[in-house]
């Protein structure tokens, strides 16, 4: 009886593992007996493009906000202070350098905010 129960429990574990793999994704296939059988589909790792776009847009928004809130001379002075600092400060200064997109957005938002 114990051997029968062990075989039964092994089969239950195998079925549950198969169902867990199917829950991650499957494709229906027709086998040679013309039965529709679910086949486990491998999970492919994909690059998180949406998250990268959100991070870039938030960064652009932050740069635009800082550019609008400071006049150009004060902004350039603060970037220069960062550029004279440590390696991390220089990296931040390189990112915070004014670019055409930030300048155009700051100009438009400045016109809207300041009227």
User: Structural class given helices, strands, pairing?
Assistant: mainly alpha
Distance N to C terminus: 86 Å
Total strand segments? 2
If strands are numbered along the chain, what order do they take across the biggest sheet? Answer: 1-2
How much beta, percentage-wise? 5-15%
The parts where pLDDT drops under 50 for at least 5 residues are none
The radius of gyration over CA amounts to: 29 Å
Number of domains: 2
Main beta-sheet annotation: 2 strands, antiparallel
Helicity range of the residues?
A: 55-70%
Shape: elongated
What is the average of the pLDDT values?
89
Work out the helix count. 5
SSE topology string: HEEHHHH
Keywords:
115 residues, 2 domains, mainly alpha, 2 strands, two-stranded antiparallel ribbon, elongated, 5 helices
What would you note in describing this structure?
The chain is built from five helices and two strands, in the order αββαααα. It has 115 residues and is mainly α. The chain has two domains: 2-40, no CATH class; 49-114, no CATH class. Strands 1-2 form a two-stranded antiparallel sheet.
What is the secondary structure topology, with strand pairs?
Blueprint: H1 2-23, E1 26-30, E2 36-40, H2 49-69, H3 72-83, H4 87-96, H5 100-114
Antiparallel strand pairs: 1-2
């Amino acid at each position: 009886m114990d051997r029968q129960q062990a075989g039964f429990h092994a089969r239950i574990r195998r079925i549950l593992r198969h169902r867990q793999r199917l829950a991650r994704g499957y494709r229906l296939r027709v086998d040679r007996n013309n039965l529709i059988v679910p086949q486990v589909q491998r999970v492919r790792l994909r690059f998180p493009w949406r998250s990268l776009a959100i991070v870039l847009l938030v960064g652009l928004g932050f740069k635009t906000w800082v550019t609008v809130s400071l006049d150009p001379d004060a902004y350039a002075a603060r970037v220069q202070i960062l550029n004279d600092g440590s390696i991390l400060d220089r990296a931040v200064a390189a990112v915070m350098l004014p670019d055409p997109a930030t300048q155009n957005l700051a100009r438009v938002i400045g016109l809207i905010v300041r009227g």
